[in-house]
Model the fold of this input.
Amino acid sequence: MHSGDLAPDFTLTTDDGASFALSSALERGPIALFFYPAAMTKGCTKESCHFRDMGTAYQAAGVQRIGISMDDVAKQAQFAEVNRLDYPLLSDPRGEVAALYGVKRALDFLRVRRTTFAIGTDQRIVAVISSEFSMEVHAERALEVLTTR
Done:
């Protein structure tokens, strides 16, 4: 997936058991959709908490934050509760959405590449942010590109 591509639509279950459809959510504003390898791990916690800590800036800009991993709903709910995350986490247990977005790894223990897609309300990808080791760059860059377009 690259900038300018149409983001594949999907429907998954959130950490609180609700249904989430990308196309419906985009009616409420642009989205920073970030894929992370596994809930409750050091790097993923740091990244997710940075998205949480930038919540005021995201809300002021009207940009939604959505996390997604291959963890099941119960693990996502635990992760959200422990870290007081104030945005939805989506469960993609078979990695089908990760595969659609080209971030699913062949090796199961690594699961997905840490990647964020900044998606405009037209469902077009504005930017793709990829960094396995700089956890803060995802939230900061996604907000920047979605507010300067």
User: Anything to note?
Assistant: The helical segments are 22-25, 42-53, 55-61, 73-82, 96-100, 136-147. Residues 11-147 form a domain with the Glutaredoxin fold (CATH 3.40.30.10).
